[in-house]
Amino acid sequence: MDGVAFVFSASLYAGHIKVVADDSQVDVYTVDRKTGVFHGQSDSVVCKKIGGRSYAVGAASVKVDEVMCNQRRIKMYKRMLSSSETFIGSDGLQYKWKVKGMCSAYLWVDGGSEHLLAVYTAESRFWSRCPAVLTVYADALGMLDEVVVTCVYIARKIQMLQDG
Asked: pLDDT for 116-128, tens place per residue?
């Protein structure tokens, strides 16, 4: 499967993170949020750099289980007794982030499709320090902003699971 891999430049505990693609043709994203003891559930603001300028793409809020992407509010729905989170894309289709343990998540079109759109692998904090990586496959590049912003939301949820 062809696609683009994005590497998160710093730990999700950092206040400023660059999300850089392995393909120079693809835009660079940044994620900013307040850090510290009293900001555990603060919103993560996502921007995209185009031609040296930074533009707001949206925000991810684990407090209210929603993201904003390109001025569109996207509600994230958690399934009962499941680690999956679903959302309705701007194309009207329902998508599902399936969280596996505390280390990865997979984005699918919901409804039994075996069509993988993206994979998020969380930062390794134990034996070897490996950065978080988001791989977006070719079929999802048309909705890249939505994939990145919902992934930031899922990454924060995984981080909260890891922290207990």
From this structure: 999 999 887 666 6
